[in-house]
Every structure is written in C-alpha cells, then in structure tokens.
Amino acid sequence: MMEFQPAAYYLPHESPMVFLEKVCTVDNDHAICEVNVSTEGILSPFLNEHKALPAWFAIEMMAQAIGVWRGCHGMRKNETPRLGMLLGARGLKSTLHEYPHDSVLRVYVTRQLQDDKLASFDCYLEINGERITQARLNVYQPDDRELAQLIQPPTSEEPTA
C-alpha cells in the first residue's frame, strides 16, 4: 500500500484554508481523504458554538479531495500543485446540518468525466461508514495564462462592480 503525505502537500492552499488532513488512497479515478472534527484539529477555527462543523463545509472538502487527486497525479509528472476552480455542485444532499465534534469525516471522490481542463466527480462524505452528504462537483483547471487573467487586479479603464 502506498504511503501518502498529508493532504496539504498536494494542495496549493495554506493553513487555515486546508480542510483535509489525511490522504487514504489515490488511484486513476478515485481519492479518499479524512479529517477530524476537533477543537485541536485543522477545522477548529470553523467550528460553531456546539464544537461542530457546519455541513456547508462539505462542498469545499469535496473540492479539496479532488484537488488532492489532481495534485497527486500532477506530482507523478513533476508538476507542482495548481489552483483549480469549482464551477458548481449538483444534487447536493445531506442528512446532517452539522458534523459532530470528535467525528472523523471520510471524503470520497470518483472521476466521472474529464477532458483537458474540465472534470466532473461524484463525491460523498461518510461518518462511521454511513453516507451523510453527497454531490456531483464540476471543476475547471485553468492554464497559467487564464489564471493570470483571473487573478490580476482590474485596471482603471475597466469598470468595477
């Protein structure tokens, strides 16, 4: 079985914006990651008054698991982790409105479609083997030119919103 680095190693994010801890597996079409909902863990800044994590964080955890999948495959080709973009989520369903303190969230992502820049993944979260949240995420991997255009500040000639 292959040993993996912590999830942050495969992502172009820095703390506190990394929401996954452990990479369990990555293969051609799947990735599985875990994170603990704990006052001592990486999610601690985002816990509510019940020491629970609001369920809407699932979208970003799923997107980051896709990022881990992409980052791991990219590193096999000597590429550094790159920013990706979440285009949307479909069929988001959750049986919980928050994830309880001291629970371990296991995030599963499965590639359904992919071309050069666009991909679609079926995703779900489990606690103790029970599926609690699911969605299909559509993502986009911009090239360097597109990324530069997206993150450059507007010029004075461009109208601002």
TrEMBL record:
**A Pfam family that the UniProt record links to this protein:** ApeP-like
Designated name of the protein: Hotdog family protein
